[in-house]
Here is the input.
Amino acid sequence: MVRLCIFDLDGTLANTLESIAGFANEALAQCGWKAIEPTSEYRFLVGNGADRLIRRMLEHTADRYSEEDVSRLRSVYDALYLSDPMKNVTEYPGLLPVLQRLKKEGILLAVLSNKPDDAACAVVRGLFPADLFNVYHGQREGIPRKPAPDGALLIAKKLGVAPSDCLYIGDSGVDMDTGRNAGMRTVGVAWGFRGQAELREHDACFIAQKPEDLLTFAGVEGDK
Here is the structure.
């Protein structure tokens, strides 16, 4: 029985690729580095938190870089992102009604992202109704980032749900590893950043081709 669905954010609940790429390329330009084009390149740079994103950006665009370069670029990127976290963020068509149906059926909803906590919370609040998610968190100090299971397990514990009664839903191998590490069943979403091959390589229990598939995997059937 599924009692709790924990969702990744970027590429799963929110199409943030244009947003992330825009802020990232502006930060690179301000720091004197070449922009990364096309935007689709960022599909493979995101997913492991902002620190790893910054390093991957520099590895992609620079012959060499220092820790000072990493720190400066991260500072500029964070300031740009937090100045307008909903810029170029869009929802995936058909997803909100599915989330509302899950909620109506009594299934708890949560978000766990490797995006910094303040930015993640701003996107969730900006894109979805205030009462939709029971808990939502980004990366917080003292809690290992995904694929470590700590954040997912803390959410399940807070909501009083056993890991075996949870689905962890995301668009990347990191997400599939997170769910498995936490003892949760995993759902990979085909509409995300990374693609189905990566989801299968990381042993997704299910793959959702469209938002409505989430209802089936959660045990919710029929129209109501």
Q: What stands out?
A: The beta strands are 4-7, 14-15, 90-91, 108-116, 135-139, 166-170, 185-189, 206-208. The chain has a mean pLDDT of 95. DSSP finds nine helices and eight strands in the chain.
